[in-house]
Amino acid sequence: MSRVSKFAARDPGPSARIVGFAAHLRDNGLRLGVAEADQMMTALNAVNASNADDAALALKTICTGCKEDFDRFDALFDSYWRDAGRVKHKSIPKPQTKSNDESIHSSRDGQGEDMGSSGSASAPEGGDGECESDGEGRLMATQVKNLMQTDLRELVRPEDIAEAEKVARRLGAAMRNRRSRRRIAARRGQGLHFRKTIRRSLGTGGEPLALIRKKRPDRPQKIVSLCDVSGSMTLYAQVYLAFVAGLIRADDTSDAYLFHTRLVRITEALREKDALRAIGRLSLLADGFGGGSDIGPSLQKFADSYARRFVDGRTTVLILSDGYDTAPAEVLSNALAKLRKRGCKIIWLNPMKSWRDYAPIAAGMAAAMPHLDRFVAAATLQDIAALEQELKTL
Amino acid sequence: MTWTTLQNSLRDHGYVASDDLAVALHLALTLGRPLLLEGAAGVGKTEIARTLAAEKNTKLIRLQCYEGLDAAQSIYEWNYQRQLLTIRTAAEDGETGKAVEERIFSRDFLLERPLLAAITQDTPPVLLIDEIDRADEEFEAYLLEILSDFQVSVPELGTITAQTRPIVILTSNGTRDLSDALRRRCLFSYVDYPDRETELAILQARCPQAELSLMQQVVNFVQNLRREDLEKTPGIAESLDFAAALMGLGVADLTRDPQALHATLSTLLKTQTDRAAITPEVAVRLAGKAA
Questions:
Q1: Does the predicted TM-score (pTM) go above 0.90?
Q2: Which of B175, B176, B190 sits opposite A67 (nearest CB)?
Q3: Would you say residue A165 lies in a domain?
Q4: Is residue B175 within 8 angstroms of chain A, CB to CB?
Q5: Is A387 found in the same domain as A265?
Q6: Contacts of B118 (CB under 8 A, 6+ apart)
Q7: Nearest-CA distance from B35 to chain A in Å?
Q8: Contact A33 B184 (CB under 8 A)
Q9: In this predicted complex, what is the ipTM?
């Protein structure tokens, strides 16, 4: 049992360690509330908690909620409880002694000391001060246009990523709004749904008191995006990722993956509310970023595993890649054919298509061409924004 | 009761549960919380509810979810026809309106659907909510309310509170992501394809009359088959069918009779492409590896 973590001597006891474990899991992206820590204690009482394997199984049941978490749990458990005898820090953080009065908004704190703002007595500090924002506003407007036309490789700052996200949102909306020709019963809508109205009138002795109407149902289109982050794509990857993040955040049925030499599902990570944290979690997942590219095998893996669960006739698959593949072209072609059979639409966004004299002659790209619904250029944000019209007609 | 006794008792009823699943079930029973099971089709998610009901000697109430499932089909509905008839006869008998109204909105006229039925039993039943991922998200919200309070309010009758808390098991094939709220209220376990030993134990539990050597061959064959590139990977249900088919045909050794083997493959392979991919030669090779 020498592998078991040693906790600090002043550690308050098992419940504090459990709380520490919950925090450890939260840090690693599992979504746990306060109630879970309580349930973990109850669960440990229900099994033989002195047996580490039993305890691990019990906690796994409580703390995980999807297959990805379920698979990762054992490693997380080991890293906390069986840390090869290393001493853990105290699990409970010290209560904060510093008490800042939130109601006082002043550039000076309670003791009357200057808090170090850059403004002087005669001029306000830079940033969001009223007198400077006026000029900056106009500057911003021109900057937006500029940004729409630069090659994507210049887009690296967070505010530009936010811009890419906005485009992604619009695009997602354009693809998603599909309406059916059929009509279904609804509370509001044009026209009466006779069958349901008559059926409902039985309850009121044949008097149609409740009128049921009908409308055209929305048939939302799911968007699944696969983003290539191999070495050849590094220049574009960051913005493509922002675009993918935008798609995910705009609607919770969409799904995202990235691939280089292997395939990683990043949907869960991107769902994080705080964009910065989401990118942080992403970089943990995207181990191998900028490495080699195995497009064919990655898509094959996708078609074999996730596609079975998430891709159907109402799905659009976006592939963001330059098509430079190290694997044989047939693998890619087979994978796309298999994906195609699930009834989805496949759109390939290639950053290089907008280059002059570009032709899809790279073996992988050429093999993929027959299976694509659309093959479009997307080197600049403007290109991506222009897709809106095209996707509406798909 | 510990989880190993539960595991053994399930085994006596013909279900071989992995450690993961046994602990999850044990906790669901002790903590009184719903258990969400995910996994590919045919790995025995529905079967566990059936076995649990048999083991606890209670009723199994099953709600099969589908797109468009609503409250009327899952919770309760008034029996309109009967109400109408009652109104007619009451009019002939000269009953007053007030009395009739009270009568036709009583429990006798309420059609219990699975969710209401599950909370009005005297002994806690096993409530199986099958393939929850097929139901709409609106239905998930209904379900959340019932799973947290175990009560249903009928406007005409008032609130019906659970007499006993049912043992709730939800299954999902993962065709869509479930909401976080639902996941948080449930314990979770992922049911995977079984390993060699477990699958052999399952086959032995289900077909006790079969010979051990044949069962070993079947398990090895199916395990090899799962490693092939198939559109639909065979689950446990399929390997049970396969074993039954072999026994029905009187096959004692997989490697001896390639024709019978190929004929029985229809129990394992469920699409045209898979049939085409596993040619008789491939099947013989897999069986050869198995032997």
A1: no
A2: B190
A3: no
A4: yes
A5: yes
A6: B61, B125, B127, B166, B168
A7: 9
A8: yes
A9: 0.78
